[in-house]
Amino acid sequence: MLHIVNKSPFERNVLESCLRFCRNESAVLLIEDGVYAVTRGNAAEPKVRQAMSHVKVYALGPDLEARGMQDTVIDGVKLVDYGGFVDLVAEHKAVQSWL
Amino acid sequence: VNKTTGGADAPEETSGTIKKFMFVNRKAPYGTIYALEALEVVLISAAFDQDVSMVFVDDGVYELVKGQHTKAIEVKNFSPIYRALEGYDIEKLYVDEESLKARGLTTESLLVPVEVLNSAQIGELMDQQDVVISF
Q: What is the pLDDT of residues B43-66, one digit of tens each?
């Protein structure tokens, strides 16, 4: 399953919930304010790193660039553009957009 | 007699009153409209010659991050406005130290010179205001 999170980890605890429920081999895509979670030195970094041992973590490049955070992405996080976003949705049987 | 163009003839006493306005910014720049709306109101208040300060706490510190490029998300990049505030005599920009640290940011990451304060100092500044507006 593909999980999509669009809220800052400081504003909502939705990423935490998502990571708690998402199973091995799942993919998590961070978009909009969700991308702050994959920037180096942010308080959610340890949780993201821990998740990366069993789920694939993606972030939307255009959202990182808009926020000036494109050069501070945690190693191992895969960046996708809008085309890549569509591919991820197509590759997974189901998508959950966390609210 | 000095005549101004347009607007009502405000009595001297109200036009001369300067209040201390503080705008508290707590939201990241593009996920919601708050950050941009705050800037609009700040510029309006400056046009009325008020004593304006801006404080950036929690995700609000992300508003000031350098190197924002919004072309790909097709949204206006309003970050250059923060650099223009000085031209409107808005020079009191305060940033919460704890919020910066929690996000792996330093003043080096920011696009304008700011004064970094701890939460107690920010609280004290808030107490000195006539009007505090939160975004």
A: 999 899 999 999 999 999 999 999
Q: Which chain B residues are Cβ-neighbours of A84 within 8 angstroms?
A: none
ipTM of model: 0.88
On whether any CB of chain A is under 8 Å from the CB of B98, the answer is: no
Residue among B59, B49, B132 at smallest CA distance from B96: B59
| A25 confidence band (pLDDT: 50, 70, 90) | confident
Cα(A88)–Cα(B82) distance, integer angstroms: 36
**Model confidence band, residue A27 (pLDDT cutoffs 50, 70, 90):** very high
8 Å CB contact of A45 and B62: no
